[in-house]
Design goal:
With 473 residues, the chain is an alpha/beta fold. The protein has helices at residues 30-42, 58-70, 80-99, 113-130, 147-154, 171-174, 180-187, 198-212, 239-247, 249-261, 280-293, 315-335, 352-361, 376-383, 415-427, 430-446, 449-462, 466-472; strands spanning 4-10, 13-18, 21-26, 45-49, 73-75, 136-140, 159-163, 192-195, 220-223, 226-232, 266-273, 301-308, 343-347, 364-367, 391-395, 408-410. Helix 11 crosses helix 15 (415-427). Bound molecules: 6-O-phosphono-beta-D-fructofuranose. Pathway: Glycan metabolism; glucosylglycerol biosynthesis; Glycan biosynthesis; trehalose biosynthesis.
């Protein structure tokens, strides 16, 4: 039977080794969270990295393999040097900051390219080994930009999709990459290339024209005698699942207890991976600015910021963590009392139930990345508000801003205006809050993750087969 083969750097579950114990936990991040349920429904395979298993004993390894097999996950094991050079190095020190417009963070030396290329080859080999005629292959994200091209060499007739989960930057930024042509050609191995927004599609087409002299005809590019399609497919979440979680009695009890502990206060909430793209310091500065200029809010605000540990071996993330720690300390030192502090900073992971409780308890949700491909947290917040209440403050630099028009829009670089936006959200009257939240929820419901999967796969599977397209070309 034809199957869906999902291919991504990270599997939906990650192996965590702590001292003598080993656990298989759910992975964090938009891709893993978003695709988990479609994978459960599809009955296909998911090929990716389960995290570091090098320190596991034989028995532990067998247990982990069995658990992964249960989830229909096919692991690719990376050596410590591959983790450091392909994952932390080229993917997260070069491509990640570059796609988020942070050129100053890209290292001057291009040292890890070879390992990135080799690991992409390993992925392509493994996928080719599991492929059966008729299967659909769906490759995900910037860690695997060469995989579509490598697969096309191995499986010329296969149906291959690629989705880019982070921003695709303007061609002015992309052209600074020494390996720009190889990466673009890698993507062109796919039959369909998807992005979250129309601007990312435009930027990608701009790079194709500039670097490879290729014209995009509406959504079609001719490459090596094949037609390649490109399109915007904004990713959604499992809205229904989040909504029912937010209605569970145990979650509601948690919400009530949180609200009791914050009596007389308004709850501001931020939930992010601890990543320098998420704009946490500027968000903290906006809250600080509000407290500074409006003494009436002092003691009346509780800003809960959850920061999920991420990419802790990459030095930029450690420096960023220190910056956030320092800022939280400064604000709490300045505006805290013996009774309470304005910023409740939680550096750890939370499960979906706990997140649903936090979303439901919040008065105002702050999603203010300085750059973000989509940001599914914004959508989760709306899904978790069946009470039609709560205000979303959303950065205009998140892909989600293209869809969530009834959020309070903010430029996170403008601290003064961001403070205004927080204040506007805090003071918004109930009728307006409800009207906005209803519109947001309607959008998030109509365009959930299952809609996203079927619109991408529907388009991919509806394309004529490669041989027919070659002929038509
Ligand atoms: O959404 C972008 C993304 O890079 C995904 O590819 C990934 O799942 C997520 O962020 C988390 O990052 P990492 O896998 O590096 O922990």
């Amino acid at each position: 039977m034809p199957r869906l083969l999902l291919v991504s750097n990270r599997l939906p579950v990650t192996v965590k080794v702590e001292k003598d114990s080993v656990a298989v936990v759910l992975s964090s991040g938009g891709l893993a969270t978003g695709l988990r349920r479609p994978h459960e429904r599809s009955g296909g395979l998911w090929i990716g990295w389960p995290g570091d298993v090098s320190r596991l004993s034989e028995t532990q390894r067998t247990q982990v393999e069995a658990r992964l097999a249960e989830e229909r996950c096919v692991p690719i094991h990376l050596s410590p040097s591959e983790v450091s050079r392909y994952y932390e190095g080229y993917s997260n020190r070069v491509l990640w900051p570059l796609c988020h417009y942070m050129l100053e963070r890209v290292p001057r030396q291009d040292r890890d390219w070879e390992v990135y290329r080799k690991v992409n080859e390993r992925f392509a080999d493994l996928v080719a080994r599991h492929y059966q005629p008729g299967d659909t292959i769906w490759v995900h994200d910037y860690q695997l930009m060469l995989v579509p091209g490598l697969l096309r060499q191995r499986l010329p007739e296969a149906r291959i999709g690629y989705f880019h989960h982070i921003p695709f930057p303007s061609s002015e930024i992309f052209r600074t990459l020494p390996r720009r042509e190889a990466l673009l050609k890698g993507l062109l191995g796919a039959d369909l290339i998807g992005f979250h927004t129309v601007s990312y599609v435009r930027h990608f087409s701009g790079s194709l024209l500039r670097q490879l002299g290729l014209d995009t005809d509406v959504d079609r590019i001719m490459w090596e005698g094949r037609q390649v399609r490109v399109g915007a497919f904004p990713m959604g979440i499992d809205t229904e699942a989040f909504e029912s979680l937010a209605k569970e009695p145990s979650v509601l009890e948690e919400v009530a207890s949180l609200r009791r502990s914050a009596e007389g206060q308004r709850i501001l909430l931020g939930i992010d991976r601890l990543d320098y793209t998420k704009g946490i310091p500027r968000r903290l500065l906006a809250v600080q600015r509000l407290l500074e200029r409006e003494p009436a809010w002092r003691g009346r605000l509780r800003f809960i910021q959850v920061a999920v540990p991420s990419r802790t071996q990459v030095s930029e993330y450690a420096t960023y963590r220190e910056q956030v720690n320092e800022l939280v300390g400064r604000i709490n030192g300045q505006y805290g009392t013996t009774q309470n502090v304005p910023v409740h900073y939680l550096y750890r992971s939370f499960n979906e139930k706990q997140l649903a409780g936090l979303y439901r308890a919040a008065d105002v949700m702050l999603v203010t990345p300085v750059r973000d491909g989509m940001n599914l947290v914004a959508k989760e917040f709306c899904a978790a508000r069946p009470d039609d209440d709560g205000v979303l403050v959303l950065s205009e630099f998140a892909g989600a801003a293209d869809e969530l028009h009834r959020a309070v829009s903010v430029n996170p670089y403008d601290v003064e205006k961001a403070a205004d936006a927080i204040e506007e959200a805090l003071e918004m009257g109930e009728p307006e809050r409800r009207e906005r939240m209803r519109a947001l929820r309607a959008q998030v419901k109509a365009h959930d993750v299952h809609w996203w999967v079927s619109s991408f796969l529907g388009r991919l599977q509806g394309l004529p087969s490669v041989s027919v397209r070659k002929f038509q070309g």
